[in-house]
Amino acid sequence: MLGAGVFVALGPAVGRTGVFVVWAVLLAALVAGLNALASARLATRYPAAGGTYVFARERLGPAWGHLAGWVFVVGKTASCAAMALAVGAHLAPGHATTLAVVAVAVLTAVDLTGARRSADALTVSAVLVVLVVGASSLLVLGGTPREDGVGHAIDLQAVPQAAALLFFAFAGYARLATLGEEVRDPARTIPRAVAVSFAVVTALYVVAAAAVAHALPPDVADASDRAVADAVDTLGHPALTTAVAVTAVVAAGGALLSLLGGVSRTTLAMSRDRHLPRALARESSRGVPAAAQVAVAVVVVAALPFVDAAEAVAASSGCVLVYYALTNAAALTLDGTVLRVLAAAGLLGCLLLVLSLPVAGVLWTLAVVVAGLAAGRLTLRRAAA
Questions:
Q1: What does the record list as coiled-coil region(s) (predicted)?
Q2: What pTM does this model have?
Q3: For domain 5-384, which architecture applies?
Q4: Which of 64, 182, 349, 359 could form a disulfide with 56 if both were Cys (CB 3.0 to 4.6 A apart)?
Q5: Does 180 have pLDDT greater than 50?
Q6: CA 60 to CA 70: how far, in whole Å?
Q7: Helix %, strand %, coil % for the chain, to 5?
């Protein structure tokens, strides 16, 4: 979760809600938490790689499993674009798109070699984000408030919309639910891991969101692709701003490297199941899904000149919220009254946030879902024939 989200999603969220952004963070955390509970419960029942792609297929049927895989691939491809733009914006704000393309090309080449980041490297990256963003945000909160005060009028419709955008920053906990095959005692380990990660991440996001709202006027935050760094810059300590920018590059770049590989492997699995063209199932001599890897990179690079970070975040959030709506729908079929109530709340929360997205985001999500359902129906017909 501690990747590009905290660095790119806070600006648009503060732009819509001002100092009330904390409520948007908490709403996003609530919906994400409900989704995590459903994911964790399903992961203990189906300890196999694949996440909601498996859950929806087993509990709702093959067509819904296809849709889950479809929205995951599309949504996470949009996430790759947002992460690449985050890397570019923090390296050189005036050349974000160009550097984003370079980042995708370089990290795809790294993935094609079969190289993998270790758990230790992931831990170092997460600790760096917590320490640098947490400490710098507290310093900002201790500084002088922005000159226009705190009189930003609350728009009740803006809080859910900001929460929908901030949901992007919570995406990542699903990775835990896909590790059922690799974890000892998943019934105990996965729920505990979800709870601990949520507590740490939510606390950090609340502090960082409050700091951005404290330092930047809503219009300035909304126009920024590096809102946390810009908020820290108001302290007048260039070294600290540089530290935040470097942390953003490390976190977003690491997340991009991981996600490029993750999306390509889901693409590989769907190709093997004939939910996507079989040509994408080709692997290199190193066992790397090279065709899928290159295809994902090409799509991301092709999209970069036409989207900004906020648009990529909205596109990703819409698809990922549909993905978790399917997670909760699958959890509704399990036994247990309390679980079903929580799953119903999670399902309604996902739908609320999707419909709260900007109009372009809602239309994009609807188009992706319709295309996914149509493709799934066609695939099932071919399999039956």
A1: none
A2: 0.87
A3: Up-down Bundle (1.20)
A4: 64
A5: yes
A6: 15
A7: 80, 0, 20
Structure tokens that stand for 256 in this block: 């991009």
Q: Which is nearest to 66 in space by CA: 274, 365, 300?
A: 274
Distance (Å, rounded) from C-alpha 120 to C-alpha 126? 10
CA end-to-end distance (rounded Å), the chain? 42
Q: Is 18 left (phi over 0), alpha (psi -120 to 50) or beta?
A: left
Residue 331 neighbours by CB under 8 Å, 6+ apart: 38, 41, 42, 55, 59, 339, 340, 342, 343, 346
pLDDT of residue 149: 47
- In the chain, how long is the greatest CA-to-CA distance? 69
Residue 384: exposed, middle, or buried by beta-carbon count in 10 A (0-12, 13-18, 19+)? Answer: exposed
CA 279 to mean position of chain CA atoms:
27
Residue listed under structure tokens 């039956």: 384
- The half-sphere exposure of 178 on its side-chain side, counting CA atoms within 13 A, is 15
Name the DSSP class of 307.
-
What whole-number distance in Å separates Cα of residue 5 and Cα of residue 101? Answer: 19
As a whole number of Å, the CA-based R_g of the chain is 20
Give Cβ neighbours of residue 171 (< 8 Å, ≥ 6 apart): 1, 5, 79, 316, 317, 320
Where are the domains positioned within the chain? Answer: 5-384
In angstroms, the CA 19 to CA 213 distance is 5
User: For residue 58, what are its two tokens?
Assistant: 């087993």
Residue 381 to residue 262: CA distance in whole angstroms: 28
Neighbours of 205 (CB within 10 A): 29
Q: How many C-beta neighbours within 10 Å does residue 157 have?
A: 10
